[in-house]
Design goal:
Structural class: mainly beta
Strand order of the largest sheet: 2-1-5-10
Number of domains: 1
Strand content: 25-35%
Number of strands: 10
Number of helices: 1
Shape: globular
Largest sheet: 4 strands, antiparallel
Radius of gyration: 15 Å
Order of helices and strands: EEEEEEEEEHE
Helix content: under 10%
Length: 143
């Protein structure tokens, strides 16, 4: 399993689950093609591998500066994210295409970015549930 990092809102020592870019989940909408989403759905609410997913990085220092909590400016001067968020990690392997958890795969898109995608064609609800099921695997790392 690849080691991945993501900034998410801290809720009682665990990443908050939800359909946003600051939570454990993805932003997806049915029917409104004008809205930017993390993964497209078809008219039946189905998502597919290799089409998008939850953004992650190989290190919290590789995450977008606007996501990294501002309280970490002493380590990364350009950090300007919300302080209720935290830098989280999970996994123990190299940052490469691999399984992440049941129903989930990492697809590396660049040296500093990857997407946790569905491993197979599933409903959006199932994909969100698979992401949420990893909640207890995430650990805060801000060192």
């Amino acid at each position: 399993m690849a080691t991945i990092y993501r900034v998410m809102t801290n809720q009682d020592g665990r990443p908050k689950i939800g359909p946003t870019r600051r939570t454990l989940g993805v932003k997806a909408r049915l029917g409104d093609e004008s809205e930017e989403v993390d993964i497209p759905t078809d008219s039946h609410g189905v998502v597919r591998p290799n089409t998008g997913g939850m953004s992650v990085a190989p290190s919290w220092r590789d995450l977008p500066r606007h996501r990294i909590p501002a309280r970490l400016r002493h380590m990364l001067p350009s950090a300007c994210g919300k302080n209720e968020d935290a830098c989280w990690w999970m996994g123990d392997g190299p940052f490469q295409d691999a399984a992440v958890a049941s129903g989930l795969r990492l697809r590396v898109t660049s040296r500093i970015h990857g997407l946790v995608e569905p491993a197979m064609v599933v409903s959006l609800d199932q994909y969100q549930s698979d992401l949420a099921a990893t909640q207890n695997e995430w650990v805060i790392d801000e060192q």
